[in-house]
Amino acid sequence: MKSIFLTSVLLLGTGAVFAQSPPASEGSAAAPKPVPPIKSLDLSAIDKNVDPCVDFYQYACGNWIKDNPVPADQVVWARSFSQLRERDQYLLWNDLDAAAKDPKTSLEKQYGDFYAACMDTATIEKDGTEPIEPAWNKIAGLESASQLADLMSWLENHGTPDGFFEFGVGQDEKDSTKQIAQLYQGGLSLPDRDYYLNSSAHYETIRKEYVAHVTKMFTLAGDTPEEAAKEAAAVMQIETAMAKASMSRTELRDPTKQYHIMTVAQLDQLAPSFGWTTYFRQSGIRPFETLNVGTPDFFKALNLLLTSEPVDSWKSYLRWHVLHGQAQDLPKAFFDENFAFFEHTLAGRKEPQPRWKMCTSKTDEALGEAVGQDWVKQNFPPAAKDSTEKLVTALEKSLGDDIKTLPWMSAATKQAAQEKLDMIRRKIGYPDKWRDYSSVKVSREAWIENLHHSAVYERDYNFNKLGKPVDEKEWAMTPPTVNAYYDPSFNDINFPAGILQPPFFDFKTDPALNYGGIGMVIGHEMTHGFDDEGSQFDGHGNLRDWWTPADHKAFAAKTECVANEYSGFEAAPAQGSTPAAYLNGKLTLGENTADNGGLRIAYMALEATLAGEGKSMDQKTDGYTEAQRYFLGFAQVWCENETSAIARQSVLVDPHSPGRWRVTGTVQNFDAFGKAFGCRKGQPMYPVQSCRVW
Ligand SMILES: [Zn+2]
């Protein structure tokens, strides 16, 4: 699915290689420490007591896993992603800290002040809930549900989080040259609809704890315990009804199910209890006649709720969303209570991260293309961009060769696939043109107001796209981000400078490790254009079927093999009366397909590169052949530990498989692995039957 809000594209699984959002929290005043570059291959991480043909992940990562438990302020600790994120974040903090102390330019003054306001906990403490009280006062004045449209546009015009639904501008999925208004489900506070609906004892307990948490937050805000309990019950009732009407994350992977162009008059008929015309007009978006209503059933249900729930319940719901949406930015009591439930209970984080990390993340989120300018100057030389270009070209050629030799695909579809591949655009490192944030008002003394100004800027930036030509050069990730993505409507692959660093990519290391690291990531993003979701879009980024019916059928059978394979992988072991959780093979299908394709085509590109240099895959370094080093470099990207709570949460919300299964799930589908390590056919990593899509 191509969501209207690009950040949610990643959370909903269209293409990011790793979408664990950077955790944000308050925490201790631990001073930032430099993080050295991370090695592409760490021989001491290997557990030689394990047979690589039996469990390659354990072989490649065993010692690292044993020696690197999850730090108290993290929920996932990955050898590459987490450590590189720490490093990139530290380098970014250097810039922010210097700008906060002694800004040299107006840009530095802006992001330095933003960062400093976030760090100023004394002022945040002194201001208390004052910065959110105008929103609460406005909510208190609500007299009937018919005034909700007016109230919500007021809240959004003031940059205040409000729940309910998601509205914005995005590309028309059937005509990617057009930018249209779009409306999607939303309004939940827990991480997924299943948290409200799953009847197991585990989730019943979580729901009780959630209601207790909402109650506690309201009492911290000054309500009596009785009032707070009543409000929390109303919040739970409304959110549960919204969850029931929401599409599941697996359903959301099907873009055709979310394409419902209608007129505003038709939307009024679908959900007449909400004043859509008022809401759109007051939001300041240019007038429009038609829009895409991504999730019509949600809005039908919302309409019924608007009439069935008393107005006091809506006030409680909105008050909650204003409070919850800004809990991390309020005084410590709110921060701590929010941490205790959302970070500790739900994710297993033991202690908050140091505040400088949260403030660095939040500044990057709000002003990323301002802070990123200095960051790339220091950390991403032009030569790195050139080398990445060459790698991408090599990977494109491999995918083309792979398509040519696919035994199951007809010549007609192969040609169409090659055409789509030829049209994939690439963006490497950072934008050619930086976004202009000069209209974002930043004060050194008003943290929450800064966030409000930033939210309004982002919303207006998005609204301003309506009816305008698409900006193909726009980025959905900031330069220091350790991630990558494919966007089906743009048909482009995007690699921020933040991931084009060791251990993914290192000038000083051999091609086997670079292809196993960043090469596989590039191949992964390209393959997203051809996974169960991306394959529904053509090279122009339009939702259009370019497959013959027979190839469709064959493709469905191939992807089903992958879905079944991963559904058999245990993600979290049984705990007491809570049964083990297994991966959802359908939710993770796109990512797993991309991993399998990426591993194969990066390997092919390495073979071609070495052949071009007259070198063999069998030559050895440190006792391992080039082929073995490729697989080791790949596997060590994914060495990780995680809390059991986040393992369980990820099964429901994360379209990516955990590191263990990203490694064993892919190598067991790729015969080159078994051959490289001299495995016997029939061993776990070299099975007789395996799955292959691309
Ligand atoms: Zn991906």
Please provide a written account of the structure.
The strands form 5 sheets. A 4-stranded mixed beta sheet has the order 2-3-5-4. Helices cover 51% and strands 8% of the residues. It is globular. A hairpin with an 8-residue loop joins β9 and β10. By secondary structure, the protein is α+β, with helices and mostly antiparallel strands. α17 packs antiparallel against α18 (411-423) and α17 crosses α22. It is built from 26 helices and 13 strands.
Hetero ligands: zinc ion
Radius of gyration: 25 Å
Strand order of the largest sheet: 2-3-5-4
Low-confidence stretches: 1-15, 18-27
Beta-strand content estimate: 5-15%
Query: Major sheet: size, sense and barrel closure?
Result: 4 strands, mixed
Compute the number of helices.
26
Shape: globular
Calculate the terminal CA-CA distance, rounded to whole Å. 21 Å
Global mean pLDDT: 94
Count every beta strand, where a strand is a DSSP E run of 2 or more residues.
13
The class by helix and strand makeup works out as alpha+beta
Query: Percent helix among the residues?
Result: 40-55%
